[in-house]
Specification:
4 helices, alpha+beta, 6-stranded mixed sheet, Beta Polymerase, domain 2
Length: 120
């Protein structure tokens, strides 16, 4: 099983929104073979809590315009690692330090990477 077209479309929209707010190192992984709860993990880096919240707002606004609403949010108050669960995709907005420490790319390296180039 692979990620649905809806999940891929939402991933690209979220990546574009994050990039517009200067998020860096935007990468996505098709985790549908490993997890039954979501299809894609989108990961991006930020350098401040203010930027993390701006990326969160931009992603939520962009996906809401296409009928997707976050069913769960975590980390917004601290702004160091914000998790946005849209069911089909999960967006991780991480400070550079948290991203290096937790290394989600390493954990999901066996999963196919989803191209977000069209979103940039």
């Amino acid at each position: 099983m692979t990620a649905t077209q809806l999940a891929l479309d939402l991933t690209r929209l979220a990546a574009a929104a994050a990039t517009e707010k200067s998020a860096t190192n935007v990468r996505a992984f098709d985790v549908s073979e490993q997890l039954f709860i979501t299809d894609v993990f989108l990961i991006c880096s930020v350098t401040s809590s203010t930027q993390a919240r701006a990326v969160q707002d931009a992603v939520e606004d962009a996906l809401r315009e296409h009928g997707a609403k976050a069913v769960r949010r975590e980390g917004s108050r601290e702004g160091r690692w914000i998790l946005l669960d849209f069911t089909d995709i999960v967006v991780h907005v991480q400070h550079v330090e948290e991203r290096e420490f937790y290394s989600l790319e390493r954990l999901w390296r066996d999963c196919p990477e989803v191209s977000v180039e069209a979103a940039r």
